[in-house]
Design a protein that fits this description.
- The chain is built from nine helices and eight strands.
- The chain has about 230 residues and is of the alpha/beta class.
Length: about 230
């Protein structure tokens, strides 16, 4: 007759083995520990400073998409798209594919239609064609302003983006700047002695690297949600 103790021990061992096998099978299932994809989205620092990363995260989460906003100037955003250190960009013009040289997909909703502005103190100037020897600041990597000015001799490319340009203008280190309407508004506008002259119409879009194109429906809805947040500013 078999020892009941041995039978009990064997039963326990079998039970333990079955539990381990069950645990390991769950571990190996593709969905068991699949981490949620969280897209790294480059955006101008001015958006994060005045609305915060949480506002963008929340707008995208409402659409079912996890994002991690990263504050980057224009040149580094484009480089990030090129190298894959970021997965998307909040705001860029239609020339982004030419600039980054990799597969990107544009959102199907327009992020913004806004004015490009010339801010200048000289009262005799009514547009960019009137600029002669004035020191004109543009944000480094801001293509619409450099496209507009061509080979203008006194163009100063400012690495600190709209914030630094804004400070330099009112500190007297620049005679004029080219800046988008949103950035100027959130930075406090212009001093009374300065003129604000519309000089360009900018259609801006949000973009993803090509390998994330399947997220575009959620990305577009998140962009719509975020536009509503910005409209309240």
């Amino acid at each position: 007759m078999r020892d009941p103790k041995n039978r009990f021990v064997r039963s326990c061992c079998v039970a333990v083995i079955l539990l381990l096998a069950l645990f390991l099978s769950f571990q190996l299932l593709p969905t068991a520990h699949a981490k949620e994809t969280c897209l790294r989205i480059a955006m101008p620092k001015v958006y994060l400073d005045h609305r915060g990363a949480d506002a963008y995260r929340h707008a995208m989460a409402q659409a079912g998409l996890c994002v991690e906003p990263i504050a980057l100037p224009a040149t580094r955003s484009i480089e990030g798209i090129r190298t894959g250190t970021v997965d998307g960009i909040l705001v860029a013009r239609d020339n982004l594919p030419d600039l980054c040289g990799v597969s990107v997909v544009r959102g199907d909703v327009t992020f913004a239609n806004m004015k490009g502005l010339l801010v200048v103190r000289d009262g005799a100037i009514s547009g960019v064609d009137d600029l002669k020897d004035q020191l004109l600041g543009v944000a480094l990597g801001q293509t619409w302003s450099t496209d507009l000015m061509g080979t203008y001799a006194n163009l100063i490319k400012v690495p600190g983006g709209p914030e630094m340009m804004h400070k330099m203008l009112f500190a007297g280190r620049l005679d004029a700047i080219l800046i988008d309407a949103y950035s100027l508004r959130v930075l406090g506008g212009a001093l009374d002695a300065y003129k604000i002259i519309p000089v360009a119409d900018l259609a801006l879009y949000s973009w993803l690297r090509g390998e994330f194109s399947h997220y575009l429906p959620q990305f577009d809805q998140g962009t719509v949600n975020y536009r509503k947040v910005l409209a309240d500013l």
